[in-house]
Amino acid sequence: MTNTHDHEVNVAERRRWNDEQWTATWPRREDLTDVATAPLLDALLPQDGERVLDVGSGAGATTLEVARRTAPGGLVVGADISVQLTDFARRRAEAEEVTNVRFLVADAQVDRIEGGLFDAAMSQFGVMFFDEPHVAFANLRRSVVAEGRFCFASWLASSENPWFLGPVLGEFVDPPPPPAPGKHATGPFAFADLDEVEALLGAGGWVDVDCRPVRTTRRVSRDAIADDSQLRMVGVSDEQFERARSLVDEHLARFLVDDGHYEVPTAFAIVSARAPA
Ligand SMILES: C[S@@+](CC[C@H](N)C(=O)[O-])C[C@H]1O[C@@H](n2cnc3c(N)ncnc32)[C@H](O)[C@@H]1O
Predict the structure, then answer these.
(1) Whether residue 103 has its Cβ less than 6 Å from ligand 1
(2) Which of 3, 119, 175, 248 could be bridged to 50 by S-S, CB 3.0 to 4.6 A?
(3) Which domains are assigned to the chain?
(4) Checking DSSP bridges between strand 75-80 and strand 51-55, what pairing results, if any?
(5) Integer Cα distance of 249 and 226 in angstroms
(6) Cα 125 from chain centroid?
């Protein structure tokens, strides 16, 4: 990985994704985010022998699935700003004996990621955290071959994703500060406006952009959407903890299907684009 930037970018997100508490609980959330894996891979169609870049690969579950599909001749590189999640993904690859995969700590907005040029780039919910998405998309376009594919999943509006507890916890935590001048908002719902996503991809040099909304339900354990450590981490104080937890229980009750499992609506987009010839 070549560090090509001389100033700090994505400072707040880098801090969040390297927070010990947040990253320790993150892999439990895969139960929710894996809702997008099948439609994402149907759009990407990874082939044996291809080189694929997974952007924001996190704990690596999707990366490993793509590596299996490109084996034995292909190579998949997972790039992520989180040191802890990258370590987790490397251990997982070893445990699952997947050898055609590499995990690198890198900022996909500005770093040149070793292992390219790639036949395709992909991301499962890892591209909404760039403070300059058009810069990130241009950087990613430079790491794929001419006519290379780019497919990613990103959440639609939070109002269509009631597993998100932000509105429930609003009274306990400060709202996030507005983006700095000239920077884009970051966070899970930063790409809810698909017209804007299409424009950002175009500004990054991608063509043939297609955004396909998917609305479905997902059966998840409670840990995938809320646990005590998450409440503490977003800033709920000890005094307010019991009240926050009971508001979360009340909000989630409508989705409870059996002991400990919830069936929650999800709404996301599968976005596909191509690098020019
Ligand atoms: C919602 S998680 C998704 C993880 C994984 N793709 C999955 O589906 O489980 C978002 C990931 O994007 C990573 N990320 C955020 N900003 C990034 C950046 N600028 N460059 C690379 N990775 C980034 C985070 O560290 C995190 O692992």
Answers:
(1) no
(2) 119
(3) 11-216+268-274 (3.40.50.150)
(4) parallel
(5) 9
(6) 3
Q: How would DSSP label each residue in 128-170?
A: TT-SSHHHHHHHHHHTEEEEEEEEEEEE--GGG-TT--HHHHT
Ligand 1 pocket test target in 4, 8, 11, 13 with most atoms within 8 Å of CB: 13
Q: What is the pLDDT of residues 85-118, one digit of tens each?
A: 999 999 999 999 999 999 999 999 999 999 999 9
In the block, residue with structure tokens 């370590």: 87
For the CA of 129, the closest atom of ligand 1 is 16
13 lines ligand 1 (CB under 6 A): yes
CA atoms of 57 and 24, how far apart (whole Å): 15
**CA-closest residue to ligand 1 atom 8:** 124
Instruction: Give the chain's length.
Output: 277
Q: Look up residue 113 and give its two tokens.
A: 């990621």
Q: Can you read off the two tokens belonging to residue 36?
A: 């997008």
**pTM beyond cutoff 0.85:** yes
Average pLDDT over residues 28-55: 97
Instruction: Give the count of alpha carbons within 13 A of 270, CB side only.
Output: 17
Cα 2 to the center of its chain, rounded Å: 22
Quick count: other Cβ atoms within 10 Å of Cβ 218?
19
